[in-house]
């Protein structure tokens, strides 16, 4: 699973067939059926256009993509969320985070041993307790289309945006965050248990937000840019 996850960061357009082929080139024998099962368990899916992707499934309301010509120029203009996979010695965890587009600041994060939606609403509640964006963007995963999730945003007066057909890179800032977190933290560790993951990630996210300079932010930290941006926002 760690090999699959690492390669997915480099080639997110690989489906189970290509991923099984790539594993074979690395000396790991895994058939396509097993790779498909593992990718599904990890919440990984090849990025490519799909027919009728943006149509509602009849159970939850679908929202339009609002960021086609929108540029985030201030803190709290746009927030995003997504889920990724964190390996341990035995098993894995799901990690969700909310990030501010303008500052790249991680506003909240949560771990879960499943892909159920409760931990996604928990991370959203934590972020909303300290601020409110104009637009909140997510993909059409069941965790984010659920009424329990979208109703919180609507109640807070936030516009909901969702990646639809042809918008596979709509959450590019979160994808960049995952790449950074994995190469600077997760892939360097051999987590023994949930407690160790929580402690280590808490330490890393403090470093990421408060100490790590970003070239795209003029070598300032996300926390610095976010705080400065919020101070300039109209009340």
TrEMBL record:
<dbReference type="GO" id="GO:0015074">
    <property type="term" value="P:DNA integration"/>
</dbReference>
<feature type="domain" description="Integrase catalytic">
    <location>
        <begin position="71"/>
        <end position="230"/>
    </location>
</feature>
<dbReference type="Pfam" id="PF00665">
    <property type="entry name" value="rve"/>
</dbReference>
<protein>
    <submittedName>
        <fullName>Mobile element protein</fullName>
    </submittedName>
</protein>
<dbReference type="InterPro" id="IPR025948">
    <property type="entry name" value="HTH-like_dom"/>
</dbReference>
<dbReference type="InterPro" id="IPR012337">
    <property type="entry name" value="RNaseH-like_sf"/>
</dbReference>
<dbReference type="InterPro" id="IPR050900">
    <property type="entry name" value="Transposase_IS3/IS150/IS904"/>
</dbReference>
<dbReference type="InterPro" id="IPR001584">
    <property type="entry name" value="Integrase_cat-core"/>
</dbReference>
<dbReference type="Pfam" id="PF13276">
    <property type="entry name" value="HTH_21"/>
</dbReference>
<dbReference type="InterPro" id="IPR048020">
    <property type="entry name" value="Transpos_IS3"/>
</dbReference>
<dbReference type="InterPro" id="IPR036397">
    <property type="entry name" value="RNaseH_sf"/>
</dbReference>
<dbReference type="GO" id="GO:0003676">
    <property type="term" value="F:nucleic acid binding"/>
</dbReference>
């Amino acid at each position: 699973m760690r090999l699959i996850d690492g390669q997915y960061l480099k080639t997110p357009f690989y489906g189970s067939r290509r991923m099984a082929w790539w594993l074979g080139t690395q000396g790991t024998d895994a058939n396509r059926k097993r790779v498909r099962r593992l990718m599904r368990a990890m919440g990984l899916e090849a990025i490519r256009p799909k027919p009728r992707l943006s149509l509602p499934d009849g159970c939850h309301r679908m929202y339009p993509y609002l960021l086609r010509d929108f540029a985030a120029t201030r803190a709290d203009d746009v927030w995003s969320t997504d889920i990724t996979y964190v390996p341990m010695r035995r098993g894995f965890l799901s990690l969700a985070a909310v990030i501010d587009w303008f500052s790249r600041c991680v506003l909240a994060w949560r771990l879960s041993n499943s892909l159920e939606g409760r931990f996604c609403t928990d991370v959203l509640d934590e972020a909303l307790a300290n601020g409110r964006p104009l637009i909140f963007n997510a993909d059409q995963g069941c965790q984010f289309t659920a009424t329990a999730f979208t109703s919180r945003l609507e109640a807070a007066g936030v516009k909901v945006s969702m990646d639809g057909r042809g918008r596979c890179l709509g959450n590019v800032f979160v994808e960049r965050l995952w790449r950074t977190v994995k190469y600077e933290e997760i892939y360097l560790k051999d987590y023994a248990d949930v407690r160790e993951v929580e402690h280590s990630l808490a330490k890393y996210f403090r470093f990421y937000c408060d100490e790590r300079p970003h070239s795209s932010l003029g070598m300032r930290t996300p926390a610095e840019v976010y705080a400065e941006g919020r101070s300039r926002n109209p009340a």
